[in-house]
């Protein structure tokens, strides 16, 4: 049978049927020749039955998603007392109990605010809206004490930093004594020294086989000498990332270089500087531009308070401050982009959902974000853009206008695509 994932429904045509649901619970429906049948297994997308040579086969239920995106994390770092945990609480909506001042990270999932979900739902009747999410790790603050205990805490801090895929570096921009360049340099110097130690140690090991003619070892020596020189000049690796070849980027992954991680600098401003116009906030933007990073500003304490009130009160509070949206939206979206992620959408009567994929993912890879069976049996993807829905008001009108595209295995999804997948398993 040929299955089509349409708004999370897997439909088998030709004598039998297979189906999925996005909510509720229930058993796999009995096979009914010539009719549609749907199951309502919560959070599952799979072909539960199909007709092959006159026989009905029932597949086992599998978890949602192909799994290749699981575990991508954005770490929130900074000196003690800069507002990291307040930002973490604001991003996660206060849903995660946090411990401040400890050496154990706080981990939580944050939804990505996305106006396009509401746009889709305004044209396609649905029961619920499900946003994309991103996982944040509230890392311990950089220890400031010396001695054996301080060194142990620093090593623990660095081990946590190495495990995340990108970093949000929170910088204090409130208070008369705020000095962003000094605070940023304090943390960056520690990270640069950690990478320099790794580079120098690896360089010593690579030189021996390189002298014997090992081609990969020679390439590693060239890379490590470049990295060591930059780090010795107190430059983070991301500042020279554009000068490295594709092969060098591939080799560098094995070393876990902290300063190579994409970094978002978050200027944590006071309530008297919500527009980020202070000299302190501007200094953060200037630093980010100089070292190949990005920057946003936010009042983390205010956002943490907003996260605790209901949506109606939140909107009223934002309006009273002359703001159109919470600053958490831009922060979350910037972190999402920092990880190299984008969203595509599926839409149906059960739910409108944003799915997370790496930018540049092919149609089969995107199908795998929903379920591995859809990726394995991919036939084609029927796509249109959210803007098409705004222009034509319905999927039927989009199709009649010739705007519904049929894309094959080599198509790379575009941010904002609404997709129906056809597959055969």
Brief synopsis:
The chain is α/β, with parallel strands linked by helices. It has 14 helices and 16 strands.
The whole-angstrom Rg is 25 Å
Spatial strand sequence of the major β-sheet:
6-8-5-9-10-11
For the termini, the CA-CA separation is: 7 Å
Beta strand %: 15-25%
Major sheet size, sense and barrel closure: 6 strands, mixed
The residue ranges in which pLDDT falls below 50 over 5 or more consecutive positions are: 1-70
Give an overview of the whole structure.
The chain is an alpha/beta fold and 425 residues long. Helix content is 37%, strand content 20%. The chain has 14 helices and 16 strands. The strands form four sheets. A six-stranded mixed beta sheet has the order 6-8-5-9-10-11, with helices on both faces. It has a five-stranded antiparallel beta sheet with strand order 2-1-16-14-15. Helix 4 runs antiparallel to helix 5. The termini are close together.
Sequence-ordered SSE layout with sheet pairings:
Blueprint (H helix, E strand, L loop, with lengths): L1 E5 L2 E5 L36 E3 L2 E3 L15 E5 L6 H8 L14 E6 L3 H9 L5 E2 L2 E6 L8 H17 L2 E7 L7 H32 L3 H18 L13 H7 L10 E6 L10 H12 L3 E5 L1 H8 L3 H10 L7 H11 L2 E7 L4 E7 L4 H8 L1 H5 L1 E8 H7 L2 H6 L4 E3 L9 E8 L1
Parallel strand pairs: 5-8, 5-9, 7-13, 9-10, 10-11
Antiparallel strand pairs: 1-2, 1-16, 3-4, 6-8, 12-13, 14-15, 14-16
């Amino acid at each position: 049978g040929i299955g089509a994932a349409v708004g999370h429904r897997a439909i088998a045509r030709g004598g039998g049927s297979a189906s999925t649901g996005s909510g509720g619970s229930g058993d796999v429906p009995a096979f009914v020749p010539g009719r549609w049948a749907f199951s309502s297994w919560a959070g599952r997308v799979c072909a539960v039955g199909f007709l092959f040579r006159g026989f009905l086969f029932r597949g086992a239920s599998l978890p949602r998603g192909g799994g290749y995106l699981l575990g991508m994390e954005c770490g929130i770092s900074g000196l003690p007392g800069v507002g990291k945990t307040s930002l973490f609480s604001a991003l996660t909506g206060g849903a995660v109990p946090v411990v401040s001042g400890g050496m154990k990270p706080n981990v939580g999932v944050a939804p990505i605010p996305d106006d396009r979900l509401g746009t889709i739902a305004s044209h396609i009747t649905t029961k619920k809206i499900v946003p994309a999410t991103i996982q944040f790790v509230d890392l311990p603050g950089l220890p400031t004490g010396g001695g054996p205990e301080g060194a142990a805490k620093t090593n623990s801090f660095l081990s946590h930093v190495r495990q995340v895929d990108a970093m949000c570096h929170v910088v204090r921009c409130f208070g008369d004594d705020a000095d962003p360049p000094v605070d940023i340099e304090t943390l960056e110097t520690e990270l640069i020294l950690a990478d320099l130690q790794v580079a120098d140690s690896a360089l010593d090991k690579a030189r021996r086989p390189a002298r014997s003619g090992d081609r990969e070892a020679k390439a590693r020596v060239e890379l490590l000498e470049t990295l060591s020189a930059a780090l010795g000049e107190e430059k983070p690796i991301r500042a020279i990332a554009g000068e490295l070849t594709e092969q060098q980027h591939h080799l560098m992954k094995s070393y876990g270089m902290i300063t190579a991680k994409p970094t978002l600098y978050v200027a944590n401003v006071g309530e008297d500087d919500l527009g980020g116009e202070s000299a302190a906030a501007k200094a953060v933007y200037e630093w980010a531009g100089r070292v190949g990073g990005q920057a946003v500003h936010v009042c983390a304490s205010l956002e943490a308070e907003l996260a605790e009130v209901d949506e109606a009160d939140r909107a009223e509070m934002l309006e009273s401050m002359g703001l159109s949206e919470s600053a958490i939206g831009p922060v979350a979206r910037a972190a999402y982009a920092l990880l190299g992620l984008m969203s595509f959408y599926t839409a149906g009567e059960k739910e409108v959902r944003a799915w997370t994929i790496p930018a540049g993912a092919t149609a089969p890879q995107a199908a795998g974000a929903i379920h591995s069976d859809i990726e394995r049996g991919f036939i084609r993807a029927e796509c249109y853009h959210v803007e098409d829905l705004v222009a034509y008001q319905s999927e039927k009108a989009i199709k009649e206008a010739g705007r519904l595209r049929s894309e094959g295995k080599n198509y790379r999804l575009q941010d904002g695509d609404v997709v129906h997948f056809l597959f055969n398993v």
